Amino acid sequence: MNQRFTEAMEKVKEQYAAGRPLSLELYREACRFLPGGDTRTATFFLPYPNFIEKGNGPYLYDVDGHKLLDFQNNYTSLIHGHGHRPTVEAVQKQISLGSAFTAPFEAQLRLARLLTERFPGLELVRFTNSGTEANMHALRIARAFTGKSKIIKTEGGYHGTTDVFEASVDPNIKKAGSLDQIKVIPESRGVSANALKDVLVVPFNDIERTRTVIEENYKETACLIIEPIMGSAGQITPTKEYLTFLRDVTRQYNIVLIFDEVVTGRLSLGGAQKFYGVTPDLTTLGKIIGGGTPVGAFGGKREIMELYDPRRKKMYHSGTFNGNAVTMAAGLAAMECYDQDAVDHVNGLGRLFVEEVRNIYHRLGLNMKVSGEGSIYNILFTDKEVRNYRDVAASHEELNKLLYMLLLTKGVFNAERGMFCMSTAMEEADVRFGLQQVETALTQMLPVIEEIGPELIL
Fold first, then answer.
1. Nearest 5 degrees, angle CA 176-CA 181-CA 187?
2. Which of 53, 218, 228, 458 has the greatest CB tally within 10 Å of its CB?
3. Which one of the listed residues 70, 198, 206, 260 is annotated catalytic?
4. What's the pTM value of the predicted model, to 2 decimals?
5. CA gap 192, 103 in Å, rounded
């Protein structure tokens, strides 16, 4: 590792740790009962995570008294920030009446109706407890509907932690083969090799290579699943031509097109499918539709979703907390408040963020990229155009980790991979505060950037 980077990272870790003795104490205790002291791999970082005491609006407060502007929002799920009053009141009222019933109730109907009215691809919908579950059931019903078993996904695409989707999520590009013949690489130990035999991987935004894979495998392929904007891969945006091609080619070859809109559901009132004008056969949702509680949903064309109609006795889908009362109350309150004005507000903050990040690059003489759309963006330490996973994987990703740590010491909480998302709780002044800290951090990083990525310096 480069000397300047190592020194800079050690220095900021020391500064971080010096101000968080109570987090260290809790972390050491947590390690006695939780592997690594936590229950989510994505929340861990060295030297140790800061333990949060509460959230209020766009801010988090940790146990050591630090106030952090929250650009992470529990990985984009908190569209209204923390302690959103209408959502809190809806949950309080509902939990006093009951948290879960072995029976349907009106709030399920109301949230389902809201979603089907907003998303062009939803005619019928079912609820789950996570985006992972939603994608799992979307895959199952696609296989049942088509009578085929293979799936096509994009390299770098994240669709949850079911074995079949743990394929080439964050692969080492040196081991992943060529773009013409991408190797399917398991994301984690313990992933079934048999499950991955049915997976084909294609590059995002690549019409010709995707066409080739489809034409060679369409007789066995049940579905093609894609994030319309690739989230964990770096907020990689699609071309309209690419999404239109996917719609046309999957229809031609009787392949179910699934849009994973767990993250992009916030992009407009009808998600990315309404934003880009491309309607899939099935849609999966999560994050914002639960109002900060565990949630997932999948739905789509009536002729497909009716396979789960219990009157037909074709397929079985259940779950103790599917569509539970608390989640339905929270989700309904949050989504009713996420009207067009709210969409315009967060997307306006997103435009401010991306425009000012580019201005920061200009002022500091940095030749870097920022990717994303709407209210979610990713700072990328690369000077190349970003069209697919490999473009991001070839960037200087270690610099995002240094930026993340520096921002934590300056009162800003983003994602370690460089992601920033807006919430309706934020105002322009909040975003400008965050931008000021980003500029200060990048200024501090200039000697390190010059050492690791000289091509990023104009």
1. 35
2. 228
3. 260
4. 0.96
5. 35
